[in-house]
Amino acid sequence: MLAETLTAGLLLITSVSALPVMSPLDYVKRAVNPGVVISQCTQPNMLALAYDDGPYTYTSQLVDILDKGGAKATFFWCGTLYGCIYRQEAAVKKAYASGHQVASHSWSHNRMGSMNANQIRTEMTRVEDALVNLVGVKPAYMRPPYLDTGGQFLSTMKTMNYKVITNDIDSGDWNNVSPQQSQQRFQQAGARGNGHIPLMHEVYPGTVNTLTPWLINWANQNGLKLVTVAECVGDVDGAYQPGNWTAKVGPYNC
């Protein structure tokens, strides 16, 4: 009996030693739960450039800057804030084709914490329909206008399978903060620890032409990988709702 026990023990040790060496993180699959607010990356050495309020006049130019810098970003788009999303069809398709993440910022950019569940669903499904019609995907990520997550908003996002993003750095571009002042905010936050998800807006030329190139250089100098929000929270395959979606026949309107 003793000999059999020793033999079994040796076999177990041998089989374990034959396993590949893995870090503790390899055994943990981080869940990105819908309806739960996420404000920062869950992984270090990353920066998730994230832009709200488009698509707009500068979207195509911003995509060019990002692509030239080898950066991936996330676009939280509205349906009607700066004109009808369908009027920016070329820019929307260009951003998606370049590998950037397209996500929702609601249809009309109103405070969703003050809406009932049906109103919230309408805000979200209209953006879904537009993105299916334009690029064939439904987003699984969203950032609420004004970062308002009150009322029935989070429970509705959970039922709709949306991951809710806010931010851990505010560029302040929406409040007339200059690109140079925004740069100081990133420097103060630093490049160590888990990566940042900033609040920025693609509708301001200073953010597109000055802040974004600076951030690309800052990330490179600090060894940060410029990734989508989905990648920075360990959900690279979960950027979009699962399923095959059929675009409606145009013409489209808002």
UniProtKB/TrEMBL annotation:
Alphabetized GO MF terms: hydrolase activity, acting on carbon-nitrogen (but not peptide) bonds; metal ion binding
Necessary cofactors: Co(2+)
BP-aspect Gene Ontology terms: carbohydrate metabolic process
Spans traversing the lipid bilayer: none
Pfam families: Polysacc_deac_1
Signal peptide annotation: 1-18
Domain NodB homology positions: 45-227
InterPro entries: Glyco_hydro/deAcase_b/a-brl, NODB_dom
Source superkingdom: Eukaryota
UniProt keyword annotation of Amino-acid biosynthesis present: no
Keyword presence, Metal-binding: yes
Keywords: Carbohydrate metabolism, Cobalt, Hydrolase, Metal-binding, Signal
Protein name: NodB homology domain-containing protein
